[in-house]
Amino acid sequence: MSKNGLPRKPLTKRRLKNLILNVLKNPFNMVVLVSLIILFCLIIIPLLTMISSTFTLAQGELRRVQGHVGDFTLYYWKYILASTMSGAVLWGPLKNSFICGFFTVLVSVPLGSVLAWLMIRTDIPGKKILGLLVTVPYMIPSWTKALAWLAMFRNSTSGANGFLAGMGIPIPDWLAYGPIAIVLCMSMHYYAFSYIMVSGALRSINSELEEMGEIQGASKAQILRHITLPLILPSVLSATVMTISKSIGTYGVPANLGNRIGYYTLATKMRNFIDQGPQAVGYAMSIVLVLLAAVIIFSNQRIVGVRKSYATVSGKGGRATLMPLGKAKKPLMAFLMVFLFLAMVVPFFVLIMETFQITTGAGYGLDNLTLYNWIGKSGQIAKYTNYEGIFRNPKFFSAFWNTIRLTLIGSIITAICGQFLGYISSRGRGKWYGDLTEQMVFVPYLMSGIAFSTMYFSMFSRPHFGGLMPSLYGTFTLIVLTSVVKHFPFASKSGTANMLSISVELEEAADIAGASFWKRMSSIIVPLAKNGFISGFMLTFISIAKELDLVIIMMTPSTQTMSYLAFTYSQEGYNQMSDAVSVCVLVFILVCYTVANRFGADLNKSM
Amino acid sequence: MSRIELKHIDKFYGSNHVLRDINLTIEDGDFMTLLGPSGCGKTTTLRVVSGLEKPQNGTMTIDGVEMINADDAYYAEPSKRGLNLVFQSYALWPHMTVYDNIAFGLKIQKMSKAEIDRRVMDSLRMMRIDMYKDRYPTELSGGQQQRVAIARAVASSPKLLLLDEPLSNLDAKLRIDMRAELQRLHKELGTTIIYVTHDQTEALTMSTKIALFKAGELNQVATPTELYNNPIDLEAADFIGNPRINLLDGKAEVINGQLVVKSDLGGHTFPAEHLTSEEFPKSGEFDCVLAIRPEQIAISTQPVEGAIPVTIYANQPAGSETITTLKAGTDEFLAKDIGQIRYDLDQKVWAIIDQDKINIYNKETTRLIKRAV
């Protein structure tokens, strides 16, 4: 045996037998093996399939390209990267995506950071209620914000007037639709990222650090500039990166606010190709989206890295002394109030009111109010619609049932898988299978909802491996599967944290007592993981309930969810119906949040 | 009751060689303590014995039955080794009551309900915590949790009981109580015990034998008395004993088979029968280190024949004992007296040292060359 290296042993028959037995007799190994295979099938193979389909000639292009179906081709990549069309297909939308992302960051990061600072570090009054209100926007799906925006600013370009146009204020297209509307709507959503991350960092800073600065004679401004800001900078950067990568991938907002005037981002343009073909072009654009997200996230890890992430890593905060705002207290309070009023109260008031209006933008006079959109029978009001009120519309109930079904089944499966994956990554920390699991599980995180579902769409639209992986096109199963795997990163993160809190020694003690792997699972791990499981489940539940981007591509008439129904109504111009459905979604989500809070689930972890 | 034999055990974590060729025999009924500073491999050795770690080299038998044979990649499961383990963190299952914690392993062994009940209550009574049987671990104090952990380990009547730093989370007073408790437990159960600690007092007070670890290797295996009186090298001498042993540089030479040593304490001549078989120059002068336990130095205020004149540098009476720092030439050393004795600083006194009790080390190899008798 060498002095430093591992000993090499001759492989005898007995040794081989025991080596095999050691692996087989430990069910944990089997569990790991099965999980790795499943992860490989659910994440790596779809990714490869999508990539390969962008290099494979499809039926639709045969008239333009020489060759046979299934031949290798660079046609699609050439089409989006270097053809006369590429400006309209890729570069234009890409530029729009970047512009929207950039300005969203510009608005939302300072907004969220300042709000966080006010809430955590100053003596602003009414913190409890403000703290709740400030995070409410994040609970609301971003696409409902777009609908609320439309309810406010819609003009005659898309048919019916909104609230302001109805009051006689001329609303130009550039305000009602397009980049400004998109940026403002997304900012109202994503500022919550910066708020949550920066407030976490601020909370973890021991105020003794600032007090030490004060003792050294620094002024408040100097303390803020030289001590507080550098400490929270990593969180601000992370929030920036998350905001930009999320806003580039968002579909619901730009689709609602941009499509009507032909303003496309990468995400909305991609869906057009998936819908209308050539689909491979859509897949190629989705790969571009994934690469973008990957580059952004990895560069963040490079820049921020471990070395500078002190503020977020050291969770232990000390006593926090609050900064007196003095004379600025009242103006700041007023600013917050106005902000919350404009960002939350007004749009949603208008949104809700619109569901009762006969003609949108025609005011709230009794002659213009109706319950038709909720419970009307067809033909009651001949004016504009042939749909019945949503509560009489079987489509709505089918969508409602689909939403419940999807969220319930999806989140139960996701939460269970999350705990399992968390178990493997926590027990396999530093071992190859633990790291591999963590890396594979991280992949869906790199993809925006629309890119991810595109990948699944391309994978499961036809059978693979001779039917071993069947075609799931148009099935409810596919929607569930997509939702489950897309939420793996979050679920397994919460599962890992949960499992890390269960000491390995508790298991070892049971091992010594003679408990088998499954016995240890059932009598030690499961009972102890219960609480973490429930909170993980609730958060996934809400996240799936909100989802539009992820499922939109998969929808068929029989599998529509409420989010999708609202979206289609809005696209078809049935604004009041669309609003009514989104009000239902909002109520559903708020009820879920209340229940989740009862179970002690922390909203801040749902990012 | 059982006899454990570890042979040539090597353990690697990645390329990190944490156990180096460990050979250790633990006799039936021994209270064997694995002692050493943190990171020296003592807990790893315990985990190898328990079956929670698989060494890459070596064999282990318990009562002659092979439990580990790394060459054949054979490792008996922990539950098949007839042992039980008390973890440093206690590892009590927080969702089970005290009773269920102890009954869990017995249920797995498919004992009858009556037998389980008898065993659980017996071990609870032995640890004097039967009144807490329906509580949850979080509702108990640290000391009580400790007792539950021990009760859980002994309820299955293991032939071998492993304890991993069980007292390190207790406060000083409780620790002394538990030491007495563990000593009684060993006597009453008659079980072989392997006990891991970094606390030399625990090791010296409870064990029948101590295995002293040093950077993944076994440095010395001896009875507590032998380990205290004749530490095998300077590091061991420095590690064992509180207040720490006095180490003074000197020059040694073998003359007519006897070891003649010169130092600030004067000259000493040691007979050949007190010398060890360790290596040292058999001719010519060489550097050595004298090691004297503070309690072996008596202080006299009057001149005594053969005593060394010294001055008082510092004097710390602490109730039951007094630690005094003495100065001879440039060397400082400690003396320990029982009771409260006061000296004036810079007072001139005489140190009386029994030369039989002095250990001499070869400075070059740091090994013991002259034993205390």
UniProtKB/TrEMBL annotation, chain A:
GO terms for biological process: transmembrane transport. Its main location: membrane. The chain crosses the membrane at residues 28-51, 72-92, 98-118, 130-154, 174-202, 223-244, 280-298, 332-353, 404-424, 436-459, 465-485, 524-544, 581-601. The keyword Transport applies. PROSITE patterns: ABC_TM1. InterPro entries: MetI-like, MetI-like_sf. It comes from the Bacteria. It is a multi-pass membrane protein. Belongs to the binding-protein-dependent transport system permease family. This is Iron ABC transporter permease. It comes from Dysosmobacter segnis.
TrEMBL record, chain B:
One of its GO terms (molecular function) is ATP binding. Keywords: ATP-binding, Nucleotide-binding, Transport. Pfam families: ABC_tran. InterPro entries: AAA+_ATPase, ABC_transporter-like_ATP-bd, ABC_transporter-like_CS, ABC_transpr_MalK/UgpC-like, Mo/tungstate-bd_C_term_dom, NA-bd_OB-fold, P-loop_NTPase. Gene3D superfamilies: 2.40.50.100, Nucleic acid-binding proteins, P-loop containing nucleotide triphosphate hydrolases. GO terms for cellular component: ATP-binding cassette (ABC) transporter complex, substrate-binding subunit-containing. It comes from the Bacteria. Residues 4-240 form the ABC transporter domain. The keyword Nucleotide-binding applies. The keyword Nucleotide-binding applies. This is ABC transporter ATP-binding protein. The lineage of its organism: Bacteria, Bacillati, Bacillota, Clostridia, Eubacteriales.
